[in-house]
Amino acid sequence: MRARRPTIVDVAREAGVSVATVSRLINGDEKVNADYTKRIRAAIDLLGYQPDERARQLRRGRTQTLGATVRSIAEPHPVLRAVDGEARALGLSMIVMSTGDDPEREREAVMAMCRRRVDGILIEPVAESLAYLQPEIDLGLVVVAFDRPAGDVALDTVLSDNRGGIRQAFDHLTALGHRRIAYIGDDERIYTGHERAEAVRGHLRDLGESVDGMVHAGPVHTETVAAALDVLHRLPVPPTALITGNAATTLEAVRCLGTAFGSTTLVGFDDFALVDLLPAAFTVIAQDEARISETILELFRDRLARPTAPVRTVVVPTALIVRGRQEALT
Amino acid sequence: MRARRPTIVDVAREAGVSVATVSRLINGDEKVNADYTKRIRAAIDLLGYQPDERARQLRRGRTQTLGATVRSIAEPHPVLRAVDGEARALGLSMIVMSTGDDPEREREAVMAMCRRRVDGILIEPVAESLAYLQPEIDLGLVVVAFDRPAGDVALDTVLSDNRGGIRQAFDHLTALGHRRIAYIGDDERIYTGHERAEAVRGHLRDLGESVDGMVHAGPVHTETVAAALDVLHRLPVPPTALITGNAATTLEAVRCLGTAFGSTTLVGFDDFALVDLLPAAFTVIAQDEARISETILELFRDRLARPTAPVRTVVVPTALIVRGRQEALT
DNA sequence: ATGAAAGCGCTAACAG
DNA sequence: CTGTTAGCGCTTTCAT
């Protein structure tokens, strides 16, 4: 026979006070008699009482909880780490769910959070449409999108300057004398994939270079990247430099290039740990994760304070981190 | 003026039925009149009703939620990924919190989960003592430890066969003719660090080799690993092979060895993505993450079913993944 | 400063 | 099959 979980009533009885007094003490009300305070504390310890968060939240309305959806809970997520810390400092709990880049799972996760009445949701949008969130937003849910814009619903949004990052890479490479600059990256149905590929096309045109066969955007796998590299290799005028559109592409490219890698001029979008362990160092376009997470929480707080203010989109600059030999093209 | 969130009462009124009927429908009770069903569905859509999970859980008792603590939410966690999927299949939500390897944060996270009345907690123990969990366990909380044993409280536990993994590495290396086998790894205050270092010492003794200066266990940083490598290098009879105690150590070792890396016989504990991108391939002792996560959930379910059964510890074998050139020592 | 009592939104007896 | 109603454990007026 297992003991019943002690409730606030048990504590009150044990301490010989009313539940209201216990509640006050638990919630840090200063004006509880010192003697009562001691007796209540003792009762709590004796009974091993832990307030039921569900009941408190139900009664209070607010949950003091921030939900977040990310692609995968099993992969590194610097933005989230920073947000996690700052949220704790604000007295918010966080609950994280993964979407696996599946719109259906994203929706399930988001609605599950709504049913738990989280105060806000940070979302890295996967689905085309987030319209189903509108009623929740009208009811006071605060939603901040990051990494990708929401599309069909007005949301505060934090984005990296994808086009600016590509510009930095082009500036860097053209300064070294490159003009034939190729690109391999993510599917253009994904916002970041589109922005980056499109930026590359623009710069190639500005340089008066042909775009034909130079920009490869699609799902990233070993085979697709290998195929793209092969196409580039066979071009009448092959590229002298390559930009990879995200970390996964960079890794696949390094893998495919193998020993040829060291002699390729590469700039990768996204910095990541271990880059320095690869056979040769290379330059990267780094996203400013710290600033991104700060901005996310700033938008969240502002929205909480002024629910009717117009939505904002903040674009955070990227930084070019130059690594490896910087040989001018001869 | 923001609209109030609709409750089950609003839905009932709108549909012209009782709240009980709405509740029944929501909870998948089959025997609700077809006409009512239609009207209730319409009311739910019209109002944008989302049941309040806090209230349901409070009323029902069980939360159908599984909590998990991990070292970092920002780092890859294969075990968790698998558990996440299986938990969903079981109809359980998961809530994950990170400990940052800090016993204090671990305790806070665990107690926060208890206050939310999660049905179970999967814990990768950090703190020396988990005694504070005993009252919760007595109250019916199911706790499963993984990766490290709990120490002072009886818990179902899933462990990798750390000593077995080291044995596999020694078998492999001695078959190649190595006898002077060194080790660099994690602090021995951490369970896995201790097990692995101690296993290495045992095997060296069995081989009749001196252990002096061959086993380096401590915090893993670039400097400490470099220092350890330096010591090994200066030994009267330097080692011919090196075992690294975890992924972090492996990476630091690779980093420190630099170009000398290719000519070192290395076996690393833990397999990880990107190993094949390093300048030279090497053999690893891989933990069986799939089997570990299955076992975790199995223990969880069994405990839920039979709360008083004796606790079990399951040790999951490791696998040696041989990579790179396998030159016998000459 | 403390207590009594009214709910928060929901589910589960219990009647009918 | 449906409705009525008593709580789940807590916070928060409203009195005192």
UniProtKB/TrEMBL annotation, chains A, B:
Pfam families: LacI, Peripla_BP_3
UniProt xrefs under Gene3D superfamilies: 3.40.50.2300, lambda repressor-like DNA-binding domains
Highest taxon above the source species: Bacteria
KW Plastid (keyword) present: no
PROSITE patterns: HTH_LACI_1, HTH_LACI_2
CDD domains in UniProt: HTH_LacI, PBP1_LacI_sugar_binding-like
Every HTH lacI-type domain range: 6-60
GO molecular function, one term: DNA-binding transcription factor activity
PANTHER family in the record: HTH-TYPE TRANSCRIPTIONAL REGULATOR GALS (PTHR30146:SF109), LACI-RELATED TRANSCRIPTIONAL REPRESSOR (PTHR30146)
Identification of the protein by name: LacI family DNA-binding transcriptional regulator
